[in-house]
Amino acid sequence: MLTYGLKRGTENELLHIGSVHNGLGCGCVCPHCKHKLIARNKGTKRIPHFAHARGAEDCGKGRMTALHMLAQQIIESGKKVMLPDYKGDYYQKTTELIEFDEVTLEKSTKLDDKLYRPDCVGIKYDDNNGEHRLWIEILVTHEVDANKTDSIRKKKQPCIEIDLSGMLGTEYTKESVTQRLVEGKEDRVWICCPYYDKKNEENKLKALQEEEENRREAEELMKKLMEEENTKLDEEYRKRIEALSKLKESGSQHQSETLNRQNNIATTSTYRDKHEPQFRPPVIPMEKMDGIIQAVHGKSINPANENYSAELAERFKKLWEMNQK
Ligand SMILES: [Zn+2]
Fold first, then answer.
1. Structure confidence at residue 25 (pLDDT)
2. Contacts for 242-251 with beta carbons within 8 Å, 24 or more apart?
3. Centre of ligand 1 from the C-alpha of residue 58, in Å
4. Distance from the CA of 67 to the center of ligand 1, in angstroms?
5. 90 class by beta-carbon count within 10 Å (0-12 exposed, 13-18 middle, 19+ buried)
């Protein structure tokens, strides 16, 4: 149901069905096709509404255009709107209300060598006679097209888009649309926000520098740790080599000890063998020679006796023993 009509002879003055005379006396045209409307606000079966007057088909777009116009009017007269959240990767800003010094509607504006007519432009003046313009696009059925978006972003023109398409199926009023525009936090996006983009870029740069710094620090730490580890390994290696050489040394010492011990035993046995008293042919002093000759050649030993050699050896031994004493 069309509940807002465009006051005949105006460009965007919308009148609610509740504020006009009944019938053709409402003085309104369709906001979209500009055809005459009749007000039906005295009915009992249907809620008050506008209808296209006899002779015109209902264009079916009156509600849509009326909502769009209503939003523009509200922004123009209220001079304020709730901004969208900014959600950069490195900078975030939650919604805030912005108030303008001036608002223009559908004013042809050259941007990127093309003419555009932003739905609304909110203008703020600063203390240095600077002028800041925010384009406000109202989405009811058509989003901001790609070419326009390209130009806006290329030229860094601040711009938001507020999506009111969800209200199209409701019995929207000036109050509900105002509430949505001024208090609503959803259904709006930044098409371009150079100010926050700049902050985002600055933060990004900072973050990247920090990352780089952290990376470098981590690298240095890793290098240091590796050097320490290498030193430890070197030390470990050195110790092992040392231990190994000691082991070898002690091993050879052990070997040489064993050898020495064996040598000692050999020496000892050789010595013992050498010094073990045993029978040797006696060295007979000259003064004892007469007696020895008598003893050796004793009358009792017959050289023809078969035991003569053994008897003789026995006598020699006794002689040697006598000589030892
Ligand atoms: Zn129409």
1. 92
2. none
3. 6
4. 13
5. middle
CA of 53 to the centre of ligand 1 (A): 10
Average pLDDT, the chain: 84
Give the pLDDT score at 63: 93
Strand 159-163 and strand 131-139: the pairing is: parallel
Alpha helix ranges (H) inside the chain: 62-78, 146-154, 174-183, 194-275, 289-296, 308-324
Kindly give the distance from the C-alpha atom of residue 177 to the centroid of ligand 1, in angstroms, as a whole number.
Answer: 21
Ligand 1 (single-atom ion) residues, CB below 5 Å: 30, 32-33, 59, 62
The answer to whether the CB of 124 falls within 8 A of the CB of 158 is no
176 in Cβ contact with 85 (< 8 Å): no
Distance 66 CA to ligand 1 centre (A): 10
The strand pairing partners of 36, in sequence order, are: 29
Band (pLDDT 50/70/90 cuts) for residue 269 is: very low
| Cα–Cα dist 157/110, whole Å | 11
Q: Using one digit for the tens of pLDDT, what is the confidence trace for 23-61?
A: 999 999 999 999 999 999 887 788 899 999 988 789 999
CA 151 – CA 112 distance, rounded (Å): 6
More confident residue, 129 or 301: 129
Which residue has tokens 């042919």?
281
Amino acid at 1: M
Report the separation in Å between the CA atom of 314 and the middle of ligand 1, taken as the mean of its atom positions: 165
How close is the Cα of 311 to the center of ligand 1, in Å? Answer: 168
Q: How far is the CA of 234 from the centre of ligand 1 (A)?
A: 91
d(CA 203, CA 214): 16
Cα 48 to middle of ligand 1, angstroms: 17
The pTM of the full predicted model, rounded to 2 decimals, is 0.67
* C-alpha 63 – ligand 1 centre gap (Å): 9
